[in-house]
Amino acid sequence: MKKFLFFLIFPFILAACAPFQDNTPQSHSFFAMGTYMKITAYGKNSDTVFLHAEKEIRRLDTLLSAENPDSEISRLSKEGKLIPSEDTARLISLAESWNRSTGGTFDISLAPLSKLWGFPHGPYHVPTETERAEALGKTGMKYISCNKETGEYFLESGCALDLGGMAKGTAAEKAADILKAAGIKNALLDLGGNIKVIGTKPGGRPWHIALRHPDDTDKTAGTLSVSDTSIVTSGDYERYFMANGRRYHHIFDPHTGAPVQNGLRAVTVICKDSEKADILSTALFVMGEKKAALFWKEHRGEFQMILFRNDNTLMITPDLQKIFTSELPVVLIS
Question: Cα–Cα distances in Å, from 211 out to 231, 234, 238, 270?
């Protein structure tokens, strides 16, 4: 998406994963949720399990995609009312909760802004302040309501929802549950850069996940050595366009209606739950360095994070010292 050229770049470069002794990895790749996905696992009958996992991801996509006019989210945005499925209702409720706990930095109601700027597919447009103000008037979680007795959700006219900041995290958790239920104990799910690892590599070795450098696909910002966790990155280099020599990316400040400009290029969140990591990576990116650090301190122990700053330095939480390596300057968040 720039000048009008579109970029969709996975925030991760996966380190090579070689078979251990007699264990041979099996992989399954497919396109869903607007991105390429790959599941790699060790164990018998992986092929059948892969298909079940893919089917579940596609089922969620039919419910949650803002780009599918027949999805539940699109129908709610278009019709203004809907009794959604249990999955969709849970995510809307979860989004409302995270909106409150993050001070509004996680917001699924910003679809009118995305459309105004031309995301995700163009035509791209740098709006005037008047246009931004008009679009902002159609955003806000206050425009979503629910009849608790009937389970019906309502959305004010002109408003629209987009669950893109949490749907892949949800899909990763659901797919991982399917693999685990089938007895798979060692696997890596890459859902368009949202990483979920089950266990370790065979033999107890950690998975090595390289984080890409925002400015160069051939470089890495560092490598995480992990097991049984999730890693999600949000950054200004994933989807953007260039106009008049400036970069305009797809993560918006809910107060200004413009792409976030706060000194951060990317935020990586590491925690057990992929859904939580997905949500927090966006919310913390919008917060900026100081507020993100304060939020982490208030929720110490719940997640770890890496902040990639404009000056090519990294801020990391202390618990990552033993599992993260980088050639870039690293500053500890204390």
Answer: 10, 11, 13, 12
